[in-house]
Each structure stands twice: as structure tokens, then as C-alpha cells.
Predict the 3D structure of the following.
Amino acid sequence: MLNISNLGITFTQYDQGLHRKQLTVITDLDLTVQAGELVAVVGASGSGKSLLAHTLLGILPENAQLSGTMEFQGEPLTQKRCEALRGKAIALIPQSVGYLDPLMAVGRQVQRVGQLNGLPSRSARSLMERTFARYDLPAHTPKRYPFQLSGGMARRVLVSTAVMTQAQLVIADEPTPGLHPDVVTETLNHLRELAQGGRGVMLITHDIEAALQVADRVAVFYAGTTVEIANAQDFTTGNLRHPYTQALWRSLPQNDFVPVPGNQPSPDQLPVGCLYGDRCSWSTADCKRARPELQFIRQGWVRCIHAEG
Ligand code: SF4
């Protein structure tokens, strides 16, 4: 359904006066999402997760230049097509109710999503009511304003917006931070249901534990590139391929609880070789010569020249 290959994003910025500089924030980013699949995109802040979502929704600023290829349903995903598909074939479940209009009752807002997707007013209202009921939202919810919703209700309303579309690809951007664990589980289960219904779901999160509850595959982003695409079970079966993914896994409280030392390189100080080189205990002179290619090893993808088959 979605096929992203060697995506690069560079911003042109004015430095001093009229002097312009190029800032490359995404390099060689690869990702696929199939229909019926939930793919988690995990990584620290600044790893490129949200920029990818903005790219797919066609909302990058005008000073961004893209390279590489993006295809959706077998057709190139151009800026024009991203804009045309946004909120229809490609839908975003935003992070918070802050994305909703604070001055309009949520029922009308969710109904409007259905109307923008071609449903007559009455059908959109009926679908909104059935969707709210499906998510166990109380009968008075459509008349509530965003600020009147609890955290759990807000998540269910936001998931409802995606259900109101015919979206084949649903992007959930950090849907769990700050929520009660029960609400986290409920939200993740709703995303899983969307995938089981045949949609492709991209779950953007920094929370590996949450991702592993529902994901089929996990793409690990680091400094704007994909360092590994693992199957969810690879985390628990010791089948991880990249030293960064292994370090992330070990850093969890239920594992060794050892933080990953060092920091991601900033976009204006990227090394010539492997982007993880400065923090990697496996690093050799060869790692510093060129960026590693993505290779298929043990049924997953990894960008490391020393990953073992
Ligand atoms: S290519 Fe080298 S520096 Fe990069 S992750 Fe692999 S071993 Fe570490």
C-alpha cells in the first residue's frame, strides 16, 4: 500500500543575511505499510517520525525539498496527490483534542469529516452516532465541546475521525503519552482493530512497549534514517539486528534499564559514515567511510555493516 524508498528531506534556510544553507533532516528513509498491517515507527525526538507524517499529509513547509520515492497504492505520491488524499484515503489521528475546533461540539466536527468524505449530512450523522456508540462514548458526547471530554473520551473521539473516512492508510501520531494505562491499552486496541478491518496503520511513537502490544512490524528511526525494520517478535526472541535497537530494548525498565549513552547527531553535524557511529560499541574504521546500506538479514531490514546473518 505505502512504499517509501530512500526518502530525503532537506530544508533551505537563510543563515546570515542572504546566505542560504541546506539542512538535511531525513536521509535514506525506507518504510513499507501493507493493507491490514500495523507498523510502529519508533525513535527519539528529532529522529524524523513526525516529519514523515507531515510529508505523507503534504504539510511540509515550502522550503523543504524531497528526494527518493514514495508510492501509495502503486502510484507516485506527489505533493499534489498528498494534498488530494489528505483526510480521505490518508487520515491522521492527531496527538490531542487540541487539533479539534474548541468552539464546535465534537459530534458536528466528526460528522463533518464524514461529509468531507462524500457522505450526505444524514448518513454522516448516523455514522458518527454509530461510531461513538461503537467506542462506548456516552449518548451526550456529540453535544460536548473538546474541553469537556476526559482523556479517554478524547482519544475515542479522535479515533472516530479516522473511522469516518474511507482512509486506507491511518497515521496515529503519538496517541498515548500522558494517558492512564487502561486508556493506552484501549487506544492501541482500537488501532489494531482498524488494521484488522483491512486498513494500513502507521503508529508513530517513542514508546516501544506500547508499540509491541499491537504492532506487526517496528521501524526504528535514528537521526532521520531507518536503522532497522524488525518483526514485533524479534524484540522478545533476541533477534534484533542493529546495536541501536538492541540498546533501546535494553534501556527499558523491565530489561537492563541502562540508558543509551550519548545523543543523536544534529542535522547540521551529521557524520560522513554511519549516523550511529559515535555511540556504537561495534564501530570500526569501515563504519566511518560511508553510510551503510539497508540489508535484509534474518527476515528483517538493518542498516549496519556488522549486523550478523
Ligand atoms: S555500521 Fe558500524 S557504527 Fe554503524 S551501527 Fe553498524 S557497527 Fe555500529
The chain has a mean pLDDT of 93. Residues 293 and 303 are 6 Å apart (CA to CA). The chain is about 30% helix and 25% strand. The two ends are 28 Å apart (CA to CA).
